[in-house]
Amino acid sequence: MGFDYFPCLGTKMLQLRTCECVFVLSYCYLVLLTVAQVSSPSEVNALLAVKNSLIDPMKHLSNWNKGDPCAFNWTGVFCSDSTGTDGYLHVQELQLMNMNLSGSLAPELGQLSQLKILDFMWNELTGSIPREIGSLSSLKLLLLNGNKLSGSLPDELSYLSKLDRLQVDQNNISGPLPKSFANMSSVRHLHLNNNSISGQIPPELYKLSTLFHLLLDNNNLSGYLPPELSKLPEIRIIQLDNNNFNGSGIPATYGNLSRLAKLSLRNCSLHGAIPDLSSIPNLYYLDLSENNLSGSVPSKLSDSMRTIDLSENHLSGSIPGSFSNLPFLQRLSLENNLLNGSVPTDIWQNVTFTKSARLTIDLRNNSLSTISGALNPPDNVTLRLGGNPICKSANIANITQFCGSEAGGDRNAERSRKSTMTCPVQACPIDNFFEYVPASPLPCFCASPLKVGYRLKSPSFSYFDPYVLPFELYVTSSLNLNPYQLAIDSYFWEEGPRLRMHLNLFPPANNMHSNTFNVSEVRRIRGIFTSWQFPGDGFFGPYELLNFTLVGPYAGMHFDRKGKSISKGVLVAIILGAIACAIAISSVLTFLIAGRYARNLRKLSRRHLSSKASMKIDGVKGFTFKEMALATDNFNSSTQVGRGGYGKVYRGILSDNSIVAIKRSEEGSLQGQKEFLTEIKLLSRLHHRNLVSLVGYCDEEEQMLVYEFMPNGTLRDWLSGS
Question: Which residues on adjacent β-strands are paired with residue 271?
Fold first, then answer.
């Protein structure tokens, strides 16, 4: 940038005036921008394109046009710790969960070359998934669930060799599941449920040697169940409910899935027999309900079973006695089949009942005709026999109480776990989002919790109460918190079944800490949730973060760099640039202040002299500076009618509406006070019909002469014939 860019800079470069100040400040600003350009320019442009493709009614991204993304903490943008080989910081995470964003995903996302986490969960995005995302070779988490995305899954996503988690569930995705997804060599979680994906499950998916969870329920899949899935060495959960596999059977090889914890194939139009699953040692959950399966009920299942749901099939034969050897069983659903024989009353005999343990046995609408043993289940066992011939027998005592037609269980009821301690209400300001910590080691410890919306997407149990404590230990150990710091405020079952809960996370209760989390601790906890750092657990299954609410004392917290600092080299450069600009600005201001001070001294001197040398001259009026400014609209350029060696000439209208010409001296043309007054005396004595008369003068702050106004132009105009 050269000096000719500023037209106001004339030859007097040594005089630091307003225009020179603007130049220095502008130049300094550009220097700072250059020094502070820590983000890759191509990534900055990509982020701006992402913003332009989004609709942001809540203005969450309002700071995306201010400064540098990495240096100025753009909302949801997380950058690397240090510069790359190109000398820039790079965007590694884009976390925009639950921000009420609509619009579409920009193809320019593919230019964020070092992105590891792309999180747009729980927004209102429409359009398709850009195929350009497949070029993000470092991507580990692709989280797009809970939007309104449509179109098909791009084949290019298969290029994501480092991808650990693909979540596009709860969208409007259609089309087939690409065979190329078998090339995702690192993927552990494929959550594609609740879409409109159609066609055959690609048998090639058996190549996914790291896959833990395959969730494809509530789609439009068809074809057959691929036997090749039995080759998945690490698979824990297969959930394919509510698809249509055209009468295919369950491959017998699924019994070889030695690490399987949950197999859910509800309402899939399956036929044939149930395969032998007795070799799966830690199978917790088996749901094959609402199919057309036939044959007998499996006689041997894992001792770890919590839930067995084989209802609404065509199963026949008797109820296996081996079910009495399942100590952790919570639910046995065999209703609406063709079972016959007797009702075994020893099913609950070996169940390990704790205070919160429950067992529901639903045998309704079969052909069971007798009872083996005494029909006297404990209070925490629910037995349903309605619709069986046995209910018509008058010889069995108490039979009628088990033969009603009511629906089973209260699994879907909401539960609340409030504290029972008695503490003074006024001591804890609930209105400011504080509350008593239910399990605090300090009685009535009042603190402000972090509010977390959390959902288990595929739990391996039917009743949560017995597992509340293990779950709390699982979460707090993963967060490195004390068990009492977590309180499950409430939980309830949703369709799926999925377990939704509201968690309260409290700061530690000791005298050395505040009753709130500090910023770094909030940042740490949030980071564990949003980066899915919880250890894998087949029993509780995969989870999803629904919200991480910051209210009360946490409202307005920013953690866009997760506590990471800019690299020392970049920080030093920014500091040095800022110091240099500060020195330059200080110098400019010093010169300007000194110049203004000198001018003020001159004005004061003139005023002082004027007060001594002013005189009364007949026919000549003394005007104030304010009167001159009002007459010329503050010396507006539109009132200027000429210019001479003395200065500019303005057309003015005095307070009596008379029109005058005002000659305003410039700084370089100022004369002494006595000389100025002498000139006024001489002009006041000159009177001729071809000369304009002097009306008055101003000697306040500036020297000005006031003449009669010539309405017909200047002498030069008349001589030149203008």
Answer: 292
- What distance in Å separates the CA atoms of residue 167 and residue 145, rounded to the nearest whole number? 6
* Cβ contact 275:252 at 8 Å: yes
Residue 534: what pLDDT?
A: 78
Reported confidence tier of residue 90, pLDDT bands at 50, 70, 90: very high
Could you give the C-alpha distances from 27 to 22, 34, 368, in angstroms and in order?
8, 11, 91
Return the number of other C-beta atoms located less than 10 Å from residue 133's C-beta. 22
Q: SS3 string of 362-418?
A: ECCCCEEEEEECCCCCCCCEEEECCCCHHHHCCCCCCHHHHCCCCCCCCCCCCEECC
What pLDDT shows up at residue 419? 54
From residue 99, give the alpha-carbon distance in Å to each of 55, 120, 122, 367, 556.
Answer: 10, 9, 8, 55, 14
Q: Say if CB 168 and CB 191 are below 8 A apart.
A: yes
pLDDT value at position 593? 57
Answer for the pair 483, 473: CB distance below 8 angstroms, yes or no: yes
The band of 84, judged by pLDDT with boundaries at 50, 70 and 90, is: confident
What local confidence, expressed as pLDDT, does residue 9 receive? Answer: 36
* Domain boundary assignment for the chain: 283-371+378-389, 415-554, 568-605, 614-720
∠ CA 277-282-286 to the nearest 5 degrees? 55
Alpha-carbon torsion (528, 529, 531, 532), positive or negative: positive
**Sequence-separated (6 or more) residues with CB below 8 Å from residue 430:** none
Nearest alpha carbon to residue 436 among 491, 502, 509: 509
String of DSSP letters for 3-22: GGG-TT--S-TTS--HHHHH
**Looking at this protein, which amino acid is placed at residue 213?**
H
Pairing outcome for strands 640-643 and 621-623: unpaired
With residue 489 as reference, give the H or E element that holds it.
strand 486-494
Mean pLDDT computed over every residue of the chain? 84
CATH topology match: 415-554 vs 614-720: no
Task: Write down the pLDDT at residue 472.
Answer: 94
Pairing status of strand 91-95 against strand 117-119: parallel
Name the CATH superfamily, with its identifier, for domain 283-371+378-389.
Ribonuclease Inhibitor (3.80.10.10)
Rg (CA), the chain: 42
C-alpha separations of 354 from 95, 174, 483, 531, 620 in Å: 42, 46, 21, 35, 111
C-beta separation of 237 from 262 below 8 A: yes
Among 237-246, 294-303, 319-328, 527-536, the range scoring the smallest mean pLDDT is 527-536
Residue 114 CB neighbour total at 10 angstroms = 17
Read off the pLDDT of residues 206-257 as tens digits, 9 standing for 90 and up.
Answer: 999 999 999 999 999 999 999 999 999 999 999 999 999 988 999 999 999 9
Residue-wise DSSP of 303-337: TT--EEE--SSEEEEPPPGGGGG-TT--EEE--SS
Q: Summarize pLDDT for 399-438 with one digit per residue, the tens.
A: 888 987 654 455 545 565 555 567 887 778 777 788 889 9
Residue whose C-alpha is closest to residue 595's, from 11, 16, 194: 16
Is residue 452 over pLDDT 90?
Answer: yes
| 115 touches 93 (CB < 8 A) | yes
pLDDT value for 497? 92
Burial 269-279 (b: 16+ CB within 10 A, else e): ebbbebbebee
CATH superfamily, domain at 614-720: Phosphorylase Kinase; domain 1 (3.30.200.20)
Closest CA to 463 of 377, 354, 379, 386: 354
pTM above 0.70, yes or no: yes
Q: Which fold has domain 415-554?
A: Alpha-Beta Plaits (3.30.70)
